[in-house]
Amino acid sequence: MKNNLFSNIKSDLPAGLVVFLVALPLCLGIALASGAPLFSGLISGIIGGIVVGALSGSHISVSGPAAGLTVIILTAIDSLGSFQALLAAVVIAGIIQLILGLLKAGIVSHFFPSSVIKGMLAAIGIILILKQIPHAVGYDADFEGDFSFFQFDGENTFSELTKALERLEMGAVLISTICLAIFILWEQPFTRKYSFFKIVPGGLATVAAGLIINQALINTGSDLAITREHLVNLPVATDFDEFLGLFILPDWTILSNSKLYLVAVTIAIVASLETLLCIEATDKLDPYKRITSTNRELKAQGIGNIAAGLIGGLPMTSVIVRSSANLDSGAKTKLSAIIHGILLFVTVIFIPNILNMIPLAALAAILLVVGYKLARISLFKNMYSLGWDQFLPFLITVVAILFTDLLRGIGIGMAISIFFILRNNYRSSFKFDSASKESGDGKTINIALAEEMTFLNKGSMLVTLREIPENSHVVIDGTKSKIIDHDVKEVIQNFQETAKHKNINVELKGSETWKKHIINL
């Protein structure tokens, strides 16, 4: 792959176009759910694409307003009293993220287990499918981009799905079915032999087909025509002054309010965690296995949120749905993210009326395929083949995210993963000569300590030493150990005392330093 930013434009341009089509309704839906002006979501999408895209070190990640922040934003607007006050909090949150990046706090991402990250990707894929089915059949009660199990209207993912299937809009079903078939066909190997399928992005062909079919239904007066509430709904400015009026400035008079800083810190922490999770996930999806600097990403996100807050945008994060769509569309460099931001900006100004003709059912077809690719059955089979210590954290993460939300699900998955880490650490902290132990006839028992013996090994060490039979000669070998925690040394020292009463001879091997330390405890 070429390193020049524009050298892969043949791949990045169509990918940027597809991501733009996916991001457009998500920006609007998240703004609507957040109780913010619709244009604020578009501002974040534009800045997330152009500014963060240019500053980020990630090649395929795409940033914009995130569903995980909707509840925080909705609550913050109410507690602070206005959307303008929220914008001040967004600017401060961006400054905090910038500082976190300078302090190299991005290292936190390296502690997310692979099984949990893969579980997150699979969960998002399943949720995408479940959440897009209602839009595909013309039931748009839930906003685009919602990932929470419990919804604002009192419904949940499954009850909403049941309602959607009971209230089918046959026009939406027709369009989503045709669009889904077109998008799948576009990605088949045999179609890539023809230059037309290479030049025209599948996402563009899918959306264009949906738009044309619906306009044909409208023009013929068909009852199957999709009505206004099931189409993209961009705010349309009638003149340039009205367009400028869509930008809102922060209210700085609230700087003396302590609630402002609590909201800012909350946004900074949640946005940073979601970003780091997404970056870790997209790096795993990247076919070129490039590694993103997480500290640079935090700085880029911070600058992006400062810019968004100053002109009326929602807080943003790196978003896995847009990033996955970007990757699936063949993106190779960050240029695709920048292109998607430019397209959002240009089309919102010049052709909003055309964009407002796009059926949500057509966009749902694209996201259904993205969801399937994230949650392939082969991924579940592969994780199962790795053993229970990998499969269970993976599976529990999937279920937890599905029934709660992203951060809570990740937290539960992390807890399960840590349990297996502790269990494995307990089992493999040292090598024990089991044959000698079984004989119990006074033979030498060798215990070779691991390279690192921490407090996590204390329990297994206690159990092992407690079971050593009387009249034994025990050699505790710390030759290969670089770190022996105080807790472990204390266990060994206590064993030396109890060994005297069992006629057990204890011999220590290794550096004189650690042996003297045990003697002097």
TrEMBL record:
<feature type="transmembrane region" description="Helical">
    <location>
        <begin position="60"/>
        <end position="77"/>
    </location>
</feature>
<keyword id="KW-1133">Transmembrane helix</keyword>
<dbReference type="Pfam" id="PF00916">
    <property type="entry name" value="Sulfate_transp"/>
</dbReference>
<feature type="domain" description="SLC26A/SulP transporter">
    <location>
        <begin position="10"/>
        <end position="387"/>
    </location>
</feature>
<dbReference type="InterPro" id="IPR011547">
    <property type="entry name" value="SLC26A/SulP_dom"/>
</dbReference>
<feature type="transmembrane region" description="Helical">
    <location>
        <begin position="333"/>
        <end position="351"/>
    </location>
</feature>
<keyword id="KW-0472">Membrane</keyword>
<keyword id="KW-0812">Transmembrane</keyword>
<feature type="transmembrane region" description="Helical">
    <location>
        <begin position="115"/>
        <end position="133"/>
    </location>
</feature>
<dbReference type="InterPro" id="IPR001902">
    <property type="entry name" value="SLC26A/SulP_fam"/>
</dbReference>
<feature type="transmembrane region" description="Helical">
    <location>
        <begin position="358"/>
        <end position="375"/>
    </location>
</feature>
<feature type="transmembrane region" description="Helical">
    <location>
        <begin position="38"/>
        <end position="55"/>
    </location>
</feature>
<feature type="transmembrane region" description="Helical">
    <location>
        <begin position="260"/>
        <end position="281"/>
    </location>
</feature>
<feature type="transmembrane region" description="Helical">
    <location>
        <begin position="83"/>
        <end position="103"/>
    </location>
</feature>
<protein>
    <submittedName>
        <fullName>SulP family inorganic anion transporter</fullName>
    </submittedName>
</protein>
<feature type="transmembrane region" description="Helical">
    <location>
        <begin position="12"/>
        <end position="32"/>
    </location>
</feature>
<feature type="transmembrane region" description="Helical">
    <location>
        <begin position="395"/>
        <end position="422"/>
    </location>
</feature>
<feature type="transmembrane region" description="Helical">
    <location>
        <begin position="302"/>
        <end position="321"/>
    </location>
</feature>
<dbReference type="GO" id="GO:0055085">
    <property type="term" value="P:transmembrane transport"/>
</dbReference>
<feature type="transmembrane region" description="Helical">
    <location>
        <begin position="170"/>
        <end position="187"/>
    </location>
</feature>
<dbReference type="GO" id="GO:0016020">
    <property type="term" value="C:membrane"/>
</dbReference>
<feature type="transmembrane region" description="Helical">
    <location>
        <begin position="199"/>
        <end position="218"/>
    </location>
</feature>
